[in-house]
From TrEMBL:
Pfam families: HAD_2. SUPFAM superfamilies: HAD-like. Coiled coil: none annotated. This is phosphoglycolate phosphatase. It is an enzyme of class 3 (hydrolase). It comes from Paucidesulfovibrio gracilis DSM 16080. Belongs to the HAD-like hydrolase superfamily. CbbY/CbbZ/Gph/YieH family. The lineage of its organism: Bacteria, Pseudomonadati, Thermodesulfobacteriota, Desulfovibrionia, Desulfovibrionales. Its EC number is 3.1.3.18.
């Protein structure tokens, strides 16, 4: 097992949510296919599934719903019951233990996600919300990822410089977000991303 040691200068660790803290792939597929079904369309293609996973909900709906049915899709979104997908979401193995170790070491913990307010419910349901000092969703900033607005908000909250944080993500969008904010990027579960470190298992992460 390879180990990765967090730099001693790191004061805060910023996590993406979907695909990093939790496995929400099946939940996302269910939600977006439900939106398409509500407006009389068939299921997503594999390419559309992947594209929706890293975009905000409005961006994804713009992509997979024709303009003349977009308002109808918005109504379906507003009436969607989040409880339908909560049981399809699972925390990734070892993430709670890592968060506890980071918290006990006095590190600031934050989430920067392209999800919306539902992220609070998802993390609370799975016992992770209480670890975080700050959760930034697309509803909290003018521009979602890959714009740096969310990460920069987190840096201001902790009153730290970009090099004193680490951003952990699983997509090219996360990679670009970290780069745009000048924050060191660690990749989770995707060795093809350009990153300062690649995490296969959260248990591999060590504190200095």
């Amino acid at each position: 097992m390879s180990t990765l040691t967090l730099p001693a200068s790191t004061q805060a660790v910023i996590f993406d949510c979907d695909g990093v803290l939790v496995d929400s792939w099946n939940a996302g597929k269910f939600f977006f296919n439900s939106m398409r079904q509500a407006v009389g369309l068939g299921p997503l293609s594999p390419e559309e599934e992947a594209a929706c996973f890293v975009r905000t909900i409005p961006e994804s709906l713009d992509m997979i719903i024709p303009p003349d049915r977009r308002e109808q899709a918005d109504q379906a979104w507003k009436s969607f019951d989040l409880n339908e997908i909560l049981d399809l979401i699972r925390p990734h193995e070892g993430v709670a233990d890592l968060l506890e170790r980071l918290q006990n070491a006095g590190k600031g913990l934050a989430v920067c996600t392209n999800g919306g307010a539902e992220q609070h419910t998802i993390l609370e349901r799975h016992g992770l919300l209480g670890f975080f000092d700050l959760l930034i969703t697309t509803e909290d900033v003018a521009r979602g990822k890959p714009w740096p607005d969310g990460v920069e908000t987190i840096l201001r909250h902790f009153r730290i410089r970009p090099e004193q944080a680490v951003y952990i993500g699983d997509s090219a969008v996360d990679q670009r977000t970290a780069r745009n904010a000048n924050v060191p990027f660690w990749a989770y579960a995707d060795p093809t991303l350009e990153a300062g470190a690649h995490i296969r298992h959260f248990a591999d992460v060590r504190l200095p």
